[in-house]
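Issue 218. Parser rejects a valid record. Input:
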Amino acid sequence: MANPEWKEKFIERYRQLTDIDAFLGISVKPLRKSLRVNTLKCSVEDFKARMDGKLRLNQVPWCREGFWADGYGIGNLPEHFLGYMYVQGAASMIPPLVLQPKEDEMVLDMCASPGSKTSQIAAIMNNTGLIIANDNNLSRLKPLGFNLQRCGVKNAVFTLMEGRWFKDLQFDKILVDAPCSGIGTIRKSFRTIEIWNPGFSRKMSGVQRQLLGTAFNCLKEDGTLVYSTCTLEPEEDEGVVSWLLENHADAKLEKINMGIKHGKCVDEFEGRQYSSEVQKCLRLWPQDNDTEGFFVAKFRKVK
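Output the parser choked on:
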């Protein structure tokens, strides 16, 4: 159980960042079920026809293949086992859309398991090019392999290694969906708030800087790198982004324009000043669009 004093610190901390009543109010509500149509196996139109009488689908505004789904037993539907759909958080669909991989490119998904974003990237690339789908835990490669096979992904290979060990390879596009404190996922698991403590984000930000720095070194000139987390901690989000900008003169942050309701990014928090460039990032609070909380940044490597 979390230290009661830490819970008070958590509430006071987030009172400084957002409308605390709205944040806490939405955090105790179940997360809406959502799915993404896997266009490697089924068109959106055909999938809608298949779901007639099974699920009520409502379009996710920022993803043509994404839908909120009302109904029971989504994971037990034949279409799930056949790989026609991937049960995926609506906010989780954003990073691959920001990455914008193109056909025949070489892409690295540095923290790939369980495969939701990897399979989405493969669908955008129409199974062309090459995706290196990496994870650092053998047990996490099992669901990754199962999900990519189920979805008919043919352009991905797996690697098992610490992301910070990547070198001597150059990629057109890189996704770093980094391990994090997971504050944006409270609606899926209240254990997230139970294990929160004031020092955890500091520890995670060190891991995130290692991953992001390594990834940027593996990025081709004029290539795109997307950094995303499912946390709302400034030290892990704007703090890590600012660190990369400060340490890599060839890193340019690009503004994310997706027409999504979002919160203001954090320029300063608890005495730490972050780059004003962080306002180009996307900070999604759960109350903004009734989703998970998410943070997304888009970098380009310039001359």
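Fixed in the parser; the record now loads. The chain has a mean pLDDT of 95.
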